[in-house]
């Protein structure tokens, strides 16, 4: 079996490739910059083919990528600028035509990462059968891509697994992410850590678990469609921070309320993981 992974050098991509290799699966990896790929531990263990989405011309991408058995599609530009219009003005159509090219030339099994933001400004536990109502540009573009592909399924037969990612943390995450900023503040011996009020309720998973969930979903076809990649364990942002400090034995004064709460996401939400549990149960 050969699995094509896009966004290979990204935060999640690095862990997804590691998970696939651990399971003994052949990986075809792609991203825009080969120099970045060469720095990864997995580079010599995969078939790496550089590619920039949107620059395909008329080539047969299924053949270019050595006719993979399935695709795990992680590539997406412009994060974490969730509110920027380029997500649907520049990203959406190139993404769709890239996937359509692969599908029409022979690929029949794809797993794509979506986002919990597709649910919109809804508080509480979010389940896959809820109506999507995205409220920021990134979520609108992602949800539109899913709808485009569902329409394509009426013309072309292929399996689609849409993994709605919630929150994650781990080594290699963006330096602008919450825990990475906390680590930096501690390393620089800062007296206080500026953060929001911290009362937002979220759903977090370590990135290693996120990668394992994505791979588990990709390698089966009994459960398809939208799948929440989540823990179903709501936790406040402040608790996440204090848990990290307790685990690492570090201490720093938390200056809560320094930053306002984001206006592009609900105050309290987490994911229903029953569908994901069905997949894991049958492994």
Task: Based on the model shown, name its key terms.
single chain; 283 residues; alpha/beta; seven-stranded parallel β-sheet; three-stranded mixed β-sheet; globular
Provide a brief overview of the structure.
This protein is of the alpha/beta class and 283 residues long. It has helices spanning 11-22, 34-37, 61-64, 86-104, 137-152, 178-187, 207-218, 237-248, 274-281; strands spanning 2-5, 26-29, 47-48, 70-73, 109-115, 124-126, 159-165, 167-169, 192-194, 201-206, 225-229, 234-236, 253-255, 269-271. The model has no long low-confidence stretch (mean pLDDT 96).
Overview of the molecule:
This protein has 283 residues and is an alpha/beta fold. 34% of the residues lie in helices and 20% in strands. The strands form four sheets. Strands 3-2-1-4-5-7-11 form a seven-stranded parallel sheet, with helices on both faces. A three-stranded mixed sheet has the order 8-10-12. Strands 6-14 form a two-stranded parallel ribbon. Strand 4 (70-73), helix 4 (86-104) and strand 5 form a beta-alpha-beta unit. Helix 1 (11-22) packs across helix 7 and helix 4 (86-104) runs parallel beside helix 5. The longest helix is centred in the middle third of the chain and has 19 residues, at 86-104. It is globular. The protein starts with a strand and ends with a helix. The mean pLDDT is 96.
């Amino acid at each position: 079996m050969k699995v094509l992974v896009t966004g290979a050098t990204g935060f999640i991509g690095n862990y997804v490739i590691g998970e696939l290799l651990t399971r003994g699966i052949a990986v075809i990896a792609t991203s825009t910059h080969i120099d970045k790929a060469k720095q990864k531990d997995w580079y010599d263990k995969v078939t790496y083919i550089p590619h920039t989405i949107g620059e395909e011309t008329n080539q047969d991408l299924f053949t270019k990528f050595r006719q993979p058995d399935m695709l795990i599609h992680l590539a997406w530009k412009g994060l974490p600028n969730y509110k920027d219009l380029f997500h649907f003005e520049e990203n959406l159509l190139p993404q769709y035509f890239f996937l359509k090219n692969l599908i029409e030339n022979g690929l029949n099994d794809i797993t794509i990462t979506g986002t919990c933001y597709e649910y919109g400004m809804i508080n509480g536990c979010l389940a896959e059968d809820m109506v999507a109502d995205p409220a920021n540009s990134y979520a609108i573009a992602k949800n539109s891509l899913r709808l485009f592909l569902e329409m394509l399924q009426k013309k072309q037969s292929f399996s689609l697994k849409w993994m709605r990612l919630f929150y994650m943390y781990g080594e290699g995450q963006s330096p602008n992410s919450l825990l990475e900023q906390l680590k930096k503040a501690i390393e620089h011996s800062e007296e206080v850590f500026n953060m929001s009020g911290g009362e937002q309720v979220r759903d977090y998973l370590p990135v290693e678990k996120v990668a394992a969930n994505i791979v588990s979903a990709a390698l089966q076809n009994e459960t398809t469609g939208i799948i929440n990649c989540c823990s179903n364990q709501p936790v406040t942002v402040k608790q996440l921070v204090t848990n990290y400090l307790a685990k690492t034995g570090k201490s720093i004064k938390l200056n809560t309320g320094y930053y306002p709460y984001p206006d592009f996401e609900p105050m309290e939400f987490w994911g229903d993981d029953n569908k994901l549990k069905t997949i894991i149960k049958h492994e």
